[in-house]
Each structure stands twice: as C-alpha cells, then as structure tokens.
C-alpha cells in the first residue's frame, strides 16, 4: 500500500511542478496581488497555505504534536515570498509526506487522535489525513488557476500529463 500511495503522491508532485513553472513566469507583484473572492487572498499566500497544511496534518497532527507548536507561515514570510520560497516550503511538505507514509505503512485505517481548533480531541485515520491534504491541494490549485486568469494570465493544464 505504501508504494501505491507514494506513487500517487509522486504524480501530484509532477502536477505541482507544472504549476511552479507557470508561476515562475509571473511577476512577483502579481503573485502577491490580492484577488477578491478567494479565501487566502493571493496566489502566493494560497500556495503557502497548501504546503503548510500538508506539514500540519501529515506531520504535527499525525505525529501527536499540538497545534500551538506548529509554525504556520507568518505575514512577513508571505509578504516576502516568491516561487523559490514556496518551493522550499513544499520540499519540507514532501519530506513530511514521505515520513508520514513510512510511519503509517500498513496502518492507514488505524485511528489517530489529536487536538484541533474546534475540539480538544479529534480522531481520524491516516488515510483520511492523506486524502484531505491531497484533495485540499487540488482545490486550491484550481483557485490559483482562477486567480491567475483574473490577473490576465492563462495557466497550463496541471491535471494530466
């Protein structure tokens, strides 16, 4: 099962590279521009949010750390971020995903319990954490593509290679 899930995550990384290549062509001010109607506000902030969520759910939550101990990106980090900085955050997210898949190999349906902001103890399975983070990335990838279009840029197809 671990090899299948690692292969799946590898395919997600390939689609992410297509998005990174496209975003690398946009002016930094466009990446940081607020686009009304999107929860995270800008392309760069949205992309950082995705990487942080991988690190939080597959790292901190799954490894029993408390939410308060996790360092989400600060406003200053976001304000200074460029595509290279987001790539660096995703490199850490990829390392977290690899560690997660190794730890939960053969145990993807076991219960994992930790605190969340909406309650002191919440349980789910490693498979659900992985599913959530991967679908979360694709949800926001669609938002990033929509924001780019609203800013006057046509993104490439990032879903199928």
Automatic annotation (TrEMBL):
The keyword Metal-binding is assigned to this record: yes
Which InterPro entries does UniProt cross-reference here?
A: DinB, DinB/YfiT-like
Q: Which UniProt keywords apply?
A: Metal-binding
Q: Which domain of life is it from?
A: Bacteria
Record keyword Cytoplasm present: no
Pfam families per UniProt: DinB (PF05163)
Q: Which family does it belong to?
A: Belongs to the DinB family.
PANTHER family assigned:
DAMAGE-INDUCIBLE PROTEIN DINB, SLR1116 PROTEIN
State the protein's name. Answer: DinB family protein
Taxonomic source organism? Paenibacillus artemisiicola
